[in-house]
Amino acid sequence: MNLRLGGKAALAVAGIGAALLLGWLASSQGPLAPTKVTLAKVEQGPLVASTFGIGTVEARRSYAIGPTLASRVARVLVDQGDAVRAGQLLAELDPVDLVDRVASGQFAAERASSAIRAAQAQLAEAQSRAQLARASAQRYAELRAQNFVSQEASDVKQSDANAASAAMDAAAAQLAVSRRDRERALADVAGVGKLRAQARLLSPVDGVISARLVEPGTTIVAGQAVVQLIDPKSLWVKARIDQGQAGGVRVGQPAEIVLRSDPNRAYRGQVERVDWVSDAVTEERIVNVGFAARPESISVGELVEVTIRTAELSKVRSVPAAAVKRLERQDGVWQITAGRVAFKPVKFGITSLDGRSQIIEGLDAGDEVVVHSERELTQDAKVKVVPAIVRAGS
Amino acid sequence: MINLAGRDILYGWGKFVFTGLGLGLLIGVTLSMAGIYRGLVDDGRVLLQNGGADLWVVQRDTLGPYAEPSSVRDDAYRGLLGIRGVAAAGNVTYLTMQIQHARGEVRVMLVGFEPGHPGEPGYLVAGRPITRAHYEAIADLRSGLKLGERIRIRRHEYTVVGLTRRMVSSGGDPMLFVPLKDAQEVQFLKDNDALVNERARTAANPAFNRPGVPGLLEAVQASQASSHNVNVVMLRLAPQADEAVVAREIRRWKHLEAYTRSDMDEILVAKLIATSARQIFMFLVILSIVSAAIVAFIIYTMTLNKVREIAVLKLIGARNRTIAAMILQQALGLGAIGFIVGKTAATLWAPIFPKYVLLLPGDAVLGAILVLAISALASIVAIRAALRVDPATAIGG
After folding, report:
1. Which residue of chain A is at minimal alpha-carbon distance from B348?
2. Integer Cα distance of B188 and A136 in angstroms
3. Distance CA B327, CA B317 (A)
């Protein structure tokens, strides 16, 4: 009897235990279990809005030094890294026939000078002839008036005088031509001399050679650079900021620059230029950021990360950015009432880089919102609040 | 009336309970297998749900982006946004790759997405969303990555800022979300040696390196080192828009393929995971048959072991009904213990599986009914054997 009662009791206990076990499994482990969520309070405090972009170190002023006409490089006097002064000779091009052409021009000028002298002598001769002819014609004209000579003789003299005068004009013109010849020859000399000067490549500024692009003996086309020169004082960062985040960037905002070669150090800088033209393909805005103090070891083309502080709000309400959700084109947060969640539309402002979103309207300080959830929340879903869904350190 | 079954069980409870336990573990394996099958299908569904997209726009004549490679220009979204009914568009890239972290390496599906657009993970279990346009990542819990951990993908280091859950590819690889531009670069960018070799190869090509055209080589090399492709453009539609109409519009005028959620479901479940799902389903069927057979045999042999006791019962004049009830109750009890143990075991070991195991309550109910039905069926065979026992065996031995 005892055994029977004990047996029944044991069976009953086992049955109840099994039912409880199944019930617990179904309600806490499977798909019917409430979704675990974590909560956070709306906090009031300062919020720094920043924007982040990557860029490269570039020289604001970069000079590609090359000739204006196709030529062969004769000498390159500088190498990469050399500091140069304004006006310093950097490279020389092979003048080929320029020297000969200058000499030829000078000879032509000399010849023109001789021709001028010959023309002057011819003019003097013509003048003296003309004078003589005119005096002779005058005399014959007077004699004719007293009928001492025939009309014919007087006409011949007059004709001689006219011819001599024309010869004088011709000699004068010849002299003018000779003078122009000489001027042309001199202009030629000057022009070729200028070309000769072009074959000497001079530095326009004080700077550093950033590239030596061709070696002596190379033939290059007009405009091709022989050396490249940068002004190290003009090094800055050309950063690319996503258009969606570039709205608040203004000239003068402080920035932090991290070089890839020195990732643990942030250099201070500030926005110096915001380009008017965005990159339409990559949808990025180009922002130039200058260094407050140029890092000693820096290379042009180095990758950098730039963080620009675009705004600093002193006292605003904010929630973790993970709490911001979007439901049917409406921004908002999930809030818990009586163990179930409800969507609350909220107007958000800026989001800081450490992941806090500013609340413009819709929530008050101290309100609690759902931050993390185990799965996607839906209206009226049953939830269970836990301190953290993922254990720290796991 | 004495409950013969209860008395018999209490008489030899150790044997009974351990038989039930063994049976339960077998049932647990069967239930887990059902859960693996359900999980496989559910992973596909969740993959579609997570992006929050209504339409997937991919390269024409492909089943992309999950089932086939697909490549779409990353400015195609501008034209798509202009179509009536489209509310939001997001470029997304997918790339399965191996990444290194501090404790080893892990195989992940790298997802490039644009924060604030479709394709973004819908919820986080820890951390924060991506706020920088570069070098931040959100990882799935399955990847084993931790908050704040720095991981190297190709040439850049990324910081894990957020964690998410149940974001896996159709192959079960955990997803790693990074900003789109980084993902495009990763997809395209080769290692440094390959880059240098490629440059040298281009420089050696006389078509690109002509003496009379300075700058051509640089231009060609620059054009080789950028990618403006994505794998899919995800669209979210306005509430009143008809997805079939929008999809038709995109196919006709944009010369791209557009899939609705039901199309994608069909592609993923019916095409992509069909074979592996069928494989597991087949195994599930065989396992169920084997389990049923084992349950039947155990009950049958348990009864045969009691031939002498049953003969004694018959000898003292017990009715056939009493004996049949005893065997049936024992069989059902064994089935119940087996099911409870099996369900508990399956639920407890489900989270340890590397891929998601979904134990549906419906499956559990069906499993319980099946187990009890098989137990009852098996007991019928045993009852027939018991009723044929000659009472003389009790004396004759």
Report:
1. A29
2. 103
3. 17
